Amino acid sequence: VERGVSKPRGNPLSVIQHLNPLAGRCLIQLNCTAHQREQLPASEMNLSKASLFTLVSVIVIYISTEKCKASVPTFQHEGLTCSRCPPGQHMTLHCTKDHDTVCAPCSANHYTQFWNYLKKCQYCNNFCKENQNVKHECNATHNRVCECKDGYFWEYEFCMKQKACPPGYGVKTAGTPYSSTVCGKCAQGFFSSVTSATAQCKRHTNCTELGLKLDIPGTAWHDNLCSPCQPHGSEEDSTECEKALFNFVARQNIGQRKVFSLGKALLNKTRKSMLQTWNEKEEQQQIMLLLLKWKMQQSANVTAEALMKILRAAKLNKVVKKLSRKFLRQKFNAVQESCAVSTN
């Protein structure tokens, strides 16, 4: 509708009649009976293609306009039905009889997320906390969105560290920014020798396929150890044999007093210094840390015999016997046979 021309109102029929009387008569004809159509002039019965096109166009425009009006949310103000402002904008003037609601864009660091009639946009007041990263920066339609960084998940209004699965357990369900890691015990034939929030259980090595002999059968917490397996390696890293040896000692039910004795024998640590960092719930991890620090101080390769000597000094004789049976079976069996012969 051109400026200055009154806008037609009402149903489609009245709009069409206003814009094109001939097209309006056409619409009337569609609803007429056969007898009524006979009463219409022949000139109106034989409508041109242009008239039909005008008819269809007006109907489409009318329907589109009505749908557009219906899609804009409204609110009541002083007896008037007014349009709300879209997301990203706010209201600057209420609607009147002469004009609809007047809206304006939100300024920097402000937003409106929904259709509204707010006088001011909301301030982006969500600031990322410790161990969080920005997932979506503040914009005109949304507040800033934060997410826990890798290795953490959201719980109790804080980003908590993901659970680490201990040796013998692997990651069953990986952690997300909103849930912790789920651990599961390694199935038969699989193992995990590390404490990790990401590592899954691995299949035991097939020594035969490598042309080696199985020396020590694997468990849930260490791999099959192929012959020859005598713990050795560099100062910077530990071999699978060394990991298995250290894990075996750490998994024994030693108790606080004996752990302190082991710390003194390994690193000459005093009871007082160990009490400062002692955590009963993490006894295995603390024993592993002592053993790894001891390994770093050794100039020669670590051997089972060297560790057994330390364990004897700490009066952990039961652990020495178990370790010997598992890691030095051939020597242990030879000693047993020798004892049996001498007895006979």
UniProtKB/TrEMBL annotation:
Keyword Glycoprotein listed: yes
Domain annotation TNFR-Cys: ranges: 105-146
Cysteine disulfide links: 106-121, 128-146
Per-repeat ranges for TNFR-Cys: 105-146
Domain spans labelled Death: 279-327
Lineage: superkingdom: Eukaryota
GO biological processes: apoptotic process; signal transduction
CDD domains recorded: Death
Pfam short name (any one): TNFR_c6
Gene Ontology CC entries for this record: extracellular region
Protein name per the record: TNFR-Cys domain-containing protein
SUPFAM superfamilies reported in the protein's UniProt record: TNF receptor-like
Keywords: Apoptosis, Disulfide bond, Glycoprotein, Repeat, Secreted, Signal
Keyword hit for Secreted: yes
Entries under InterPro entries matching the protein: DEATH-like_dom_sf, Death_dom, TNFR/NGFR_Cys_rich_reg, TNFRSF_decoy_receptor
Subcellular location: Secreted
